[in-house]
Design goal:
The chain is α+β, with helices and mostly antiparallel strands. It has 15 helices and 23 strands. Strand 9 and strand 10 form a beta hairpin. Helix 6 crosses helix 10 and helix 12 crosses helix 13. The longest helix is centred in the middle third of the chain and has 30 residues. The radius of gyration is 27 Å and the shape is elongated.
Length: about 450
């Protein structure tokens, strides 16, 4: 099996010698075999384990088993515990869907933080068969018919060449110990029902079912690749993003052939279902502000675009800015604070919204950087009267889900700058200004 493993990796161009891989290891037979193959192939790897807290002490015993596995192979070990049932209930989704969302988001976080090239999961040919049948039963698009890809972004499936039977033969031959998940026998889970009841019946019709499905999947994947090329061109044309959100020009979608299919494909990375995509499309001609939710993202239909924001935007508390501070990080952005300087002859006040040019004599350090709240007000540049921040944001047509990410810079309790929008008229540079303080948000 080791030779087949190495041949498959080379044929699929999955891993280069200098790369390192994070293995998703549950402790079950498939993931334990994957660990053993990586070790024998001398590939640089680490182990990541999710404790979903769904099987009481059995879940904790799985965690300890996988930890010992990392010691055996002398590789780094990462572990986390999720309140999966609570998350599933709060988001009104299945436990299995909740576990999938939680684990892949965590795996990606570990991958980025520790510079892994890929995340490897232990899916095999039988998983492809079960996935295709399950997707067909529940309704699916072209992506659901290809089952499980060998490579999808930073996720790879290096034992997708193997059938369950050959994996079992490997553990017997090499006397490998694994943990058996008792929930695999329960038909209350849809995938288990497919595996335990449906597949055996279908194999009475076609004993070579796994290989047949695999050949079908390869043909469907080729068609999907053509579709993906078209979708990639469309993404570049009608979507864009910044540090806060992803934007989709829905006016352009309305002019396309098969617009719902293409909208669903654009929204799939943010876990919107096909039914939600239909509902979103129907909202295109309705008033702005309609909101749609997934466990991970919020979508707001704005005036000319869809605005998508992650639910887990970093929480922010007030930050104090001293006179000698140069850079202050907040959320995904940075505030660069220039030194106080004498104003030079011929100086022109910058007009960019992301730059604040302030009369330094009117600014009192330390400053405070915080999110706005109801009741906040300022005197917008060019006006000599107060305006509520809430009204100002309406005038600026800030999408609903981005309003909560608007920050204020304050001096001695007074708003100096609605960051990235407009400074307060009381702090502007005038003919009497002798010193200036420049700030820029990036």
């Amino acid at each position: 099996m080791l030779n087949e493993f190495l041949t498959f990796i080379n044929k699929q161009n999955l891993i280069q010698p200098s790369q390192k891989v994070l293995l998703a290891v549950s402790g079950g037979m498939d993931s334990v075999v994957m660990c053993d193959l990586f070790s024998k192939a001398k590939i640089d790897f680490a182990i990541a384990h999710c404790n979903f807290g769904l099987r009481g002490e059995e879940s904790n015993e799985d965690e300890m088993f996988v930890k010992k596995l990392s010691i055996k192979y002398k590789v780094p070990f990462f572990v986390t515990t999720f309140q999966t049932a609570d998350f599933a209930e709060n988001e009104k989704i299945s436990t299995q869907m909740a576990a999938r969302i939680l684990r892949y988001e965590w795996f990606e976080k570990i991958r980025v933080q520790h510079n892994f090239d890929y995340i490897a999961t232990a899916h095999h040919q039988n998983d492809v068969l079960e996935t295709v049948l399950l997707n067909l039963t529940k309704g699916t698009g072209i992506a659901g018919l290809h089952g499980i890809r060998v490579k999808n972004g930073h996720i790879i499936r290096p034992i997708l060449f193997a059938e369950k039977e050959s994996i079992f033969d490997y553990v017997v031959e090499n006397q490998i110990i694994w943990r058996e998940d008792s929930s695999n026998e329960s038909n209350k889970y849809q995938r288990n029902l497919i595996r335990n009841e449906v597949v055996p019946l279908l194999k009475q019709i076609n004993p070579n079912l796994e290989n047949t499905i695999q050949q079908t999947v390869e043909r469907i994947t080729a068609v999907e690749d053509i579709f993906e090329q078209e979708m990639e061109m469309l993404r570049k044309q009608i979507t864009w993003s910044d540090s806060q959100a992803i934007y989709v020009n829905y006016k352009a979608i309305q002019t396309l052939s098969q617009p719902v299919i293409k909208l669903a494909e654009l929204l799939k990375p943010y876990h919107f279902s096909y039914q939600q995509s239909q509902d979103i499309f129907e909202a295109f001609d309705k008033e702005s502000g309609k909101t749609f939710l997934t466990p991970t993202h919020t979508l707001v239909k704005d005036r000319t675009e869809l605005v998508i924001t992650p639910k887990n935007l970093q929480a922010f508390t007030s930050k104090t800015i001293e006179k000698n501070n140069v850079v202050v990080e907040f959320g995904e952005r940075m505030l660069n604070i220039g030194a106080i300087t004498e104003i030079e002859e011929g100086f022109t006040v910058p007009t960019a919204k992301k730059v604040a040019c302030l009369d330094a004599d009117k600014v009192r350090f330390p400053l405070q950087l915080r999110k706005w709240k109801e009741g906040d007000w300022f005197c917008p540049l060019g006006m000599n009267k107060k305006k509520l921040i809430s009204d100002f944001l309406i005038d600026q047509k800030v999408p609903l889900n981005l309003k909560k990410e608007v920050y204020l810079l304050t001096s001695n309790g007074s708003v100096v700058w609605v960051v990235g929008f407009r400074i307060d008229d009381r702090f502007k540079v005038t003919e009497k200004t002798s010193k200036i303080c420049l700030m820029e948000v990036k």
